[in-house]
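ok so for the tutorial part 2 we go from a plain amino acid sequence to predicted structure tokens. step 1 is just haveing the sequence, like this:
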Amino acid sequence: MSASKQPVNRRSLQHLLLLRFAMAVATYGIVMTLFWLAVIFDLLPAPQSVALVSSVLVVLSQLLFFALLRSDYNLRFRDPSMTEAQVLVGCSWLTYLLALLDSGRGTLLMFYVLILLFGVFQLPPRVFARCAAFAFCSFLGLNLWEASQQKLQDPALVLLQVAALFFVLCWLYLFASYLQALSQRMRRFALQAHQDTLRGMMRQLESLAATDELTGLFNRRHFLALAANELAMLAPGQVHGLALIDLDHFKQVNDSYGHAVGDRVLQTFAAVARACLRDGDILARYGGEEFVLLLPDTSIDQFSACCERLREAFAAAEPIGVHVKGISLSAGMTLLHCDDELDDALQRADQALYRAKRDGRNRCAAAWENVDA
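step 2 — the prediction. this is what the tokens look like for a chain of 373 residues:
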């Protein structure tokens, strides 16, 4: 990641964490409002000074979290959101407030669930289970302590509350585990889709890098790589056919009809060649109006017949949408053996092509033929 993007991402993260912290503060506000209503309605056995001090301590604890967020000190932690710490502090304060209350305790019991909901998406299942166990043990411990002091007014109601909290927290843990698994599965699917998109883009880039835009044939660089690979795999006794093909009088076509017509002639040749060649044959635009053809694992007769068939088909073709008289091609043919060098073979094909043009064009000349014949 570039250095310029890191501050932006950090600011975005801190902004989201502050928004979530604001929601937590709002939850504290609801709890404290209900707590002070209990104080007003004389449901708090302790003096109001205890409620006031408790409220101040709750506010100070949240100011500490706020300071950590505003100073970016939280970014030094393994979990910058401090979710586990905030959940444990929230459960601790709730248990303390419940200890101050008496008959109004059951009203605030549901806030254990609300506090734990802040960790549903953020906390791993094991950590969430630890927080849920802490909440349950805190409430259970409070009631066991009161039972030891013989302060329980309604043991049956307390037992019902403990059982309800236990089952709700168990369900909440299962729900959090399901959401975590679903989130991980969705991230994997998103990553897989992203990788598939990247692979598709890479294939498109590779195709663009290997293809001539006008004709759709391979370009020269890609052909040389393919031909070198075919030559490296050529077994003794096998031969490949190699031909250089040049469209006759192509400069005159451009000068007389324009480059758009010239482009159409090049596209016509590519279409005709595709129809004449096998799937494994390799044809590429070598440059300008020159093309190169490689026929793997062929013979002299098959190779010569293929080049002649291509020459005759192109001479009989009519470019779509334009009228061009007398289009033709010349080809220089040679054979590739396992001990050949590709550059030497291309030089032989080029010499044969020169001879085909010298002898009148619209013909195929072979490097293995006797020049003086």
